[in-house]
Specification:
START-like_dom_sf; globular; about 25% strand; SRPBCC family protein; alpha+beta; Alpha-D-Glucose-1,6-Bisphosphate, Chain A, domain 4; 8-stranded antiparallel sheet; ASHA1/2-like_C
């Protein structure tokens, strides 16, 4: 799979208000029912994203291993899933909505993540703080749907393909940041910080 081609398949948008909304939209060559199952079946979700536990129904709660958890606000198979997305001791408002619709023989996948971001985190990383993570998730979903081998998240950034994907994603979110009102300097600083976070340089042995 051409990871850069995968990266370019996604359209990114930022709503830079009091609450920040990062939006990702892309097409998958699989039908809506297949993409829905991949996103909501616990066993399949663990193969391309993270293991999930909880009371997985509307009004129930979920917990992704080592990551976010929250409440399932809406679940309307096979078109709409909306959850709170809470991480850390005092996360504030954070919701994720996924919408699926039939398009060109496949599925249009749309994801919106709206959150209250700490000012210091936003000024340092901008939308790439969450955006790059979602780009990596959409790559994983694409690999899963196509039957490809999943990337090893812990070491992906150490491969040329991984560094290229992460760097490209960070730059794309820098462009979305500028479109959302950031200056060139603010966007460039955010891209540098985001890239360093997701793709740290491998330490040389002493």
């Amino acid at each position: 799979m051409d990871f850069i081609d995968e990266l370019n398949r996604t359209h990114r948008h930022l709503v830079n208000g009091e609450r920040k909304t990062v939006s990702l939209r892309r097409h998958y060559d699989a039908d809506v029912a297949e993409v829905w199952e991949a996103c909501t079946d616990a066993e399949r979700l663990s193969r391309w994203f993270l293991p999930v536990t909880g009371d997985l129904r509307p009004g129930g709660t979920y917990q992704l291993k080592g990551n976010a958890g929250g409440e399932i606000l809406r679940c309307e198979p096979p078109r709409l899933l909306k959850v709170t997305w809470l991480f850390g001791p005092d996360p504030g408002f954070s919701e994720v909505e996924v919408r699926l619709s039939a398009e060109d023989g496949g599925t249009l996948f749309e994801l919106e993540h709206t959150a209250e971001m700490p000012a210091e985190m936003w000024s340092q990383f901008g939308p790439g703080a969450t955006g790059v993570g979602w780009d990596l998730a959409l790559l994983g979903l694409g690999l899963h749907l196509s039957g490809g081998e999943q990337v090893e998240e812990a070491t992906f950034h150490l491969t040329p393909e991984g560094r290229g994907f992460i760097t490209g994603s960070s730059r794309a979110w820098g462009e979305a940041f500028k479109a959302g009102g950031a200056t060139d300097g603010e966007a460039e600083a955010a891209v540098a910080a985001t890239t360093a976070f997701y793709a740290p340089e491998e330490e040389s042995p002493a």
